């Protein structure tokens, strides 16, 4: 590889040194807000005070406190990254750019997933080299997770992780021109929990003017907890810790203790008289909103924003196949899963069975999970956006089936990411326990998907017709 001199960029907060390589320039661990320490863990993100001299942007950032997550026989380390890497200053962004010049290139801001409890910019899947190669300035964002990010507490603003992403967008607006980006052509995109955060921003008044386009990959426009559900989680957390459910009381507790109590919060019954559990018991944290994002789009910038949105065809497999539960699931398991997420589980299961007449109980259970977690909320968001945006909505369905775990993993949750980032040929994604399995991926598929994302970010058109609510057809990718 060619050797390059390290570049330095002047930002409003101070100078940052990065690295230059064959795909452009890379600047890491740039703070967009002050370190969330002590009581500030439960406060809105505060402006960073800046620095003197040249800040080292060549090393990765610390990460938000987070637990280790295990997906059985599947290697998910490229998705979750290294876990908790300790350090106070983790409200940071990484910037990958073709060149820090006056180019005014399209900007893409990525928000990672991980169930609102894990993930970071350090995950290998979010390598932005291909975006820089193709003329995009890519910004990846760390935000608060778990108790500091999403537990609803008296004396603290709700949805602090979302406020962090909003603050990062403000940083992009004020700073990205120094990295060769166009602050008037910003696309925010996210996957899973990150996609749900992106959907919430579409309904957030404070987000107006901060981005022009949005991409929602396997998120949900109906994935927020009601205040009643959130308070049930708060009460359980406070009882487990032996403190009052207030920001003042929680501010005295170290992050390690917040991670220790997560098993006590797992599997809480969040069904109420008015709502089922939108996360099917997979996470005790989500956004806390009185109105679901898909039902509140007129409050935010949605009608002015181009939207690309979609899901994978076998989303639920991730939560069953690696654990050995696809084959072992029974009819009772299907009904129990449906009871968490549907008000009338028997009717819904019957509808899934009619749509998939030859499926096993495990496949039905996967379909129930996929529809409840991602499919229904994505459809509702697509419909709502299309109705107010006038031809600005584009929908996809991703169907490439990973051959991991003896060919069973399929077109599951997260499997589109290597194609979006155009890294599907990386050896660490392959092998029987790698996300994409032992087989090579179809030639040209990564190019097609990645190009659609780049073109959408540049022009608002991914290469297929806009979504028509009267004829709800999605563009088929990868099957």
Structure characterization notes:
This protein is α/β, with parallel strands linked by helices and 479 residues long. The chain has a single domain (8-477), classed as Alpha/Beta hydrolase fold, catalytic domain (Rossmann fold), CATH 3.40.50.1820. Helix content is 31%, strand content 15%. The chain has 16 helices and 13 strands. It has helices at residues 77-80, 129-133, 146-150, 160-175, 193-202, 227-241, 247-250, 255-260, 262-265, 325-328, 331-341, 345-355, 361-389, 404-407, 417-420, 445-459, and strands at 8-11, 14-17, 19-21, 24-31, 54-56, 92-97, 105-111, 137-141, 181-191, 213-217, 306-312, 393-398, 475-477. The protein has a ten-stranded mixed sheet, sandwiched between helices. Strand 1 and strand 2 form a beta hairpin. Helix 11 packs across helix 12 (345-355) and helix 11 (331-341) packs parallel to helix 13. The model has no long low-confidence stretch (mean pLDDT 96).
């Amino acid at each position: 590889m060619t050797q390059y001199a390290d570049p330095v960029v002047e930002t409003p907060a101070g100078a940052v040194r990065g690295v230059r390589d064959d795909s452009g320039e890379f600047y890491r661990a740039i703070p967009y807000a002050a370190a969330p320490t002590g009581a500030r863990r439960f406060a809105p993100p505060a402006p960073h005070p800046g620095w003197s001299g040249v800040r080292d942007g060549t090393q990765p950032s610390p990460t938000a406190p987070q637990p280790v997550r295990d997906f059985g026989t599947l290697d998910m380390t490229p998705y979750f990254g290294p876990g908790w890497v300790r350090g106070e200053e983790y409200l940071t962004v990484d910037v990958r750019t073709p060149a820090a010049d006056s180019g005014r290139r399209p900007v893409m801001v990525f928000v990672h997933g991980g169930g609102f409890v894990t993930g970071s910019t350090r995950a290998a899947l979010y390598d932005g080299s291909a975006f820089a190669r193709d003329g995009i300035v890519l910004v990846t964002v760390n935000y608060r997770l778990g108790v500091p990010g999403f537990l609803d507490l008296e004396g603290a603003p709700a949805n602090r992780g979302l406020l962090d992403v909003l603050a990062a967008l403000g940083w992009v607006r004020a700073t990205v021109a120094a990295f060769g980006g166009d602050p008037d052509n910003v696309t925010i995109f996210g996957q899973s929990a990150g996609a749900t955060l992106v959907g919430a921003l579409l309904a957030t008044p404070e987000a107006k003017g901060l981005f022009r386009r949005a991409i929602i990959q396997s998120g949900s426009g109906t994935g927020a907890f009601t205040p009643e559900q959130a308070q049930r989680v708060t009460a359980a957390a406070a009882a487990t810790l032996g403190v009052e459910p207030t920001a003042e009381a929680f501010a005295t507790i170290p992050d390690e203790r917040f991670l220790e109590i997560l098993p006590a919060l797992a599997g809480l019954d969040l069904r109420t008289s008015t709502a089922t559990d939108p996360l099917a018991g997979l996470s005790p944290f989500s956004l806390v909103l009185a109105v679901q994002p898909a039902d509140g789009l007129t409050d935010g910038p949605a009608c002015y924003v181009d939207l690309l949105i979609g899901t994978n065809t076998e989303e639920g497999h991730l939560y069953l196949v690696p654990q050995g539960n696809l084959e072992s699931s029974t009819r009772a398991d299907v009904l129990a899963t449906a009871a968490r997420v549907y008000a009338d589980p028997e009717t819904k299961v019957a509808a899934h069975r009619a749509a998939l007449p030859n499926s096993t109980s495990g496949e039905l259970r996967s379909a129930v999970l996929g529809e409840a977690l991602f499919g229904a909320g994505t459809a509702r968001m697509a419909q709502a956006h299309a109705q107010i945006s006038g031809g600005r909505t584009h929908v996809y369905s991703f169907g490439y089936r990973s051959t991991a775990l003896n060919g069973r993993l399929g077109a599951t949750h997260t499997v589109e990411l290597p194609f979006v980032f155009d890294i599907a040929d990386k050896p660490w994604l392959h092998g029987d326990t790698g996300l994409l399995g032992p087989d090579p991926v179809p030639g040209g598929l990564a190019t097609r998907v990645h190009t659609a994302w780049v073109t959408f970010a540049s022009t608002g058109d991914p290469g297929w017709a806009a979504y028509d609510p009267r004829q709800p057809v999605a563009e088929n990718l990868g099957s």
